[in-house]
Amino acid sequence: MASGSEGQVVTRFAPSPTGFLHIGGARTALFNWLYARHHGGKALLRIEDTDRKRSNQEAIDAILDGLDWLCLDYDEPPVFQSERAVRHAEVAAELLASGNAYKCYATPEELEAMREEQRAKKLPLRYDGRWRDRDPADAPDDAPYVIRLKTPTEGELVIEDRVQGRVAVKNAEIDDYILLRGDGTPTYMLAVVVDDHDMGVTHIVRGDDHLNNAFRQLPIYHAMGWKEPVYAHIPLIHGNDGAKLSKRHGAMGVDAYRDELGILPEALFNYLLRLGWGYGDQEEFTREEAIAAFTLEGVGKSPSRFDMKKLLSMNGNYIRTADNARLAELAAAEIGPQADVALLTEAMPVLKTRARDLHELADGAAFLFKTRPLAMNEAAAALLTDDAKALLGEVSARLKAEQHWTTEALEANLKAYAEEQGLGLGKLAQPLRAALTGQTTSPGIFDVLALLGREESLARIDAQALEPGK
């Protein structure tokens, strides 16, 4: 099952399918993918679904969907950890046979008494090794047991972490933890190491909340005589106030950024890239630029801060440069079956200049597909006073005489009219916008007239106007 050739970089993203693909997991996936692509290596995916009570197919689908939406592709089919329990047990048996592991027959009651004593003496809660050197013949017949790793007790373990630097832990601080439970199922520590080895993973890039796990996993590599991986533990993401990231900061699933916030995948890709990684002053990257530039040396040692305003600003930049036909399809899906994709595509150059997200884009385009009589929001209705309606009647008469229904001709016509009447253009545009869109915000008023066309524009104006002289 080993992946990759000698010297080839192999990374893996290994989520637990107990919920959505959260923002921190998406960044970890991105960094692993970029590092592999930068080095021409392999990016692999492993679903760590050994917790059968909490893992579910819906969560697996959400993770795969989120990765697909971000266009993070993998070089081999996903590995499902739950399907590899036999292999995990084989390695536990090898460790037992080599003397690097042993059977522990301590009962739950004995272990709880041990912990109570440690609490009373204010000692660290850890297994005391009571079966480490004991003769298995001392165990009662047919007594249940677990298999524990016989960890070194002298010296220290050192990790030259590619982000954190040199980190050392004394071996005496690592207890003989369980590899195989009494029911024969593997623990997380064993399964992760076996899978990473068998998948040929050379670089483990993950959150720094897993740094302690590395010191518990390395003894398995050493006991099995396997080459240990390169570690890179990335600082976690905090909220913009420096507190642990929560839902109020934006700790949602990737699907929520797409569906609830209207974020484009390339915007989230770029924002996550810059969240804890830097490359000079450059803020925005194409995928190709990101692959070329990404190194672990660019990852900072301090927690990054999630800033929703910055994400929305970046998203607005991507909307302004996105393909018009693509944006039209996305907006049409939000507006509904009445949306005309061809008209939206035509309108997109003026619509997308104002939007920070796809919801704003769709809201800004909705006026194109409203039916008469137009529903007015409160602010728009307030603009349509009797004086404003009289003005609209005069504007209607003037526009009916306009021969060229283009943005340029309409702008010249109405600016000339405002000047003749001694009006600021705003005094004219405000009631006109309300009559045409039912709201007080829209693209430029001349663009609105051109996009709606002569017939629909005049019908909407006349529906609100008083005839001249009345």
From TrEMBL:
GO cellular component, one term: cytosol
Top-level taxon in the UniProt lineage: Bacteria
NCBIfam families documented for this protein: gltX_bact
Keyword line: Aminoacyl-tRNA synthetase, ATP-binding, Cytoplasm, Ligase, Nucleotide-binding, Protein biosynthesis
Motif ('KMSKS' region): 244-248
Family annotation (SUPFAM superfamilies): An anticodon-binding domain of class I aminoacyl-tRNA synthetases (SSF48163), Nucleotidylyl transferase (SSF52374)
Lineage of the species this protein comes from: Bacteria, Pseudomonadati, Pseudomonadota, Alphaproteobacteria, Sphingomonadales
Similarity annotation: Belongs to the class-I aminoacyl-tRNA synthetase family. Glutamate--tRNA ligase type 1 subfamily.
Function: Catalyzes the attachment of glutamate to tRNA(Glu) in a two-step reaction: glutamate is first activated by ATP to form Glu-AMP and then transferred to the acceptor end of tRNA(Glu).
Uppermost EC category: ligase
Location in the cell: Cytoplasm
CDD domains noted in UniProt: GluRS_core
Record text on subunit structure and interactions: Monomer.
Binding site for ATP: 247
EC annotation from Swiss-Prot or TrEMBL: 6.1.1.17
Residue intervals of the Aminoacyl-tRNA synthetase class I anticodon-binding domain: 327-463
Reaction catalysis annotation: tRNA(Glu) + L-glutamate + ATP = L-glutamyl-tRNA(Glu) + AMP + diphosphate
GO molecular function per UniProt: ATP binding; glutamate-tRNA ligase activity; tRNA binding; zinc ion binding
Keyword Protein biosynthesis (UniProt): yes
Protein name as annotated: Glutamate--tRNA ligase
A Gene Ontology BP annotation from the UniProt entry: glutamyl-tRNA aminoacylation
Species per Swiss-Prot/TrEMBL record: Croceibacterium salegens
Locus of motif 'HIGH' region: 15-25
Positions of the Glutamyl/glutaminyl-tRNA synthetase class Ib catalytic domain: 8-311
InterPro entries: aa-tRNA-synth_I_cd-bd, aa-tRNA-synth_I_codon-bd_sub2, aa-tRNA-synth_I_CS, aa_tRNA-synth_I_cd-bd_sf, Glu-tRNA-ligase_bac/mito, Glu/Gln-tRNA-synth, Glu/Gln-tRNA-synth_Ib_cat-dom, GluQ/Sye
